[in-house]
Predict the 3D structure of the following.
Amino acid sequence: MCLLHYCLSSSLARCPHPSSTCSQQASTHEPPSPSPSFEDDELLGQILFASLPPRPGSYCSTCAAMSGGTGQKLTYATTVVAGVASLSATLVSIVSIWLQTKNYRKPLLQRYVVRILLMVPIYSISSWISLVSFTAAQFVDPIRDIYEAFTIYTFFQLLINYLGGERSLIIMTHGRAPVSHLWPLNHVLNPVDISDPYTFLAIKRGILQYAWLKPVLGISAVVMKATGTYQEGYIGVSSGYFWSGLIYNISVSLSLYSLGLFWVCMHDDLKPFRPVPKFLCIKLVIFASYWQGFALSILVWLGAIPDDVKGYTPDNLAAAIQDALICIEMPIFAVAHWYAFSWHDFADNRLSAARMPVLYACRDAFGPRDLIEDSKETFSGDKYKYRHFDASDRIMAHEDSKSRLARLKAGMRYERGGKGKYWLPSPGEINEQTSLLRGESSRDRAQMTHEDVDEDPMMDADMENLYRKAKKLEFGDWNYPVITANKP
């Protein structure tokens, strides 16, 4: 499904000029078309590989020089209705984001909710811009495609923080039976034990790689177009278009499969947090354009879309219909997001929970530092070791889990028939299991100074500013968040 998602979606992103106009320009840089005896194969290839990268850069030079977009030949009323719908969806989403920042009580969760809510305005605005301007669409569409990848990762992070964070998740699942892979990989791969830190790291890497690979593919497409090696629409080993499409399909398929695998492992634990409407909203927005594009591509292939519309070929008309439909559908998705990601989920009336100021909330929600730091930790993998994710209780790993033997190899030992456990020291490490003869020497202890002991920790400047403001309030600190991230 993911392969079709990528390969079929942007056969609709063609130039709206008659085919004769664009073909004259394309003939200067595209390889010659196959012989007439392979027309059906060429048409099938256009359907299967007409979307790399989706939409950005898929316009000819004549289109880019004109101010009109895919909807330049549509009726004025259609363009206005699409614009009003796009504006309505944007306003609803902005109000929803404002309510989240105005009631910013759980930063560890709401920062991801705000980022997800921003997806609807980006989709609606980019689709309407494609209707009215090719030039502007070339700049806006890459942002939409990159943000789509970022949203998948953001939703994954939201689910993790619902469960209290990565350490809490891994410890909570310790002792559970492994879960089978999704069909048909369950017949090939071993069951998944998400309580194993390395297994969890592999799932997380599978999701995160798409968010970082998508911008790289976009930049590489621009470079290949500038050097004349992209050859858009041509399927061959010398075409950068073909290889970029292949890499994209592998990446998005791996990302979505990893997200689905995580969902299968943790769906029972996520039930108190209403994850189903949230998951559906994200899937519907991301794949709405795909399913519509798929249907319109089939209609073009079957000849059901007319080719006698003045100024349009069937592909170009399908692109205009696609952009208009997305604009009209976005208000529905905006309302659905309002319900699925309501700020009421984070306002617990049983607690006198304070909120973060709007300015601080916006900075927290749109700041990229957490993404950058998490990406570094994920790809380095230094912190995902058995010792760092060991529970203090005496629960043993499930008998079907391979992590039990892996933990023993890493240095964990059971005692008193499994009623207790301890870790052997790593090379150079000193703990309660280390011989006293290997402890710290008196000379090393004597080097400690009073300055080291009495040194005052420095608070963050912004944190100190919040404290100073709180002390001036008549009824105390009403402006500070209560961190209860894992409470439904």
Summary: The beta strands are 412-415, 420-423. The domain at 2-26+36-346 is CATH 1.20.1070 (Rhopdopsin 7-helix transmembrane proteins). The first helix runs from residue 2 to 9. The chain has 19 helices and two strands.
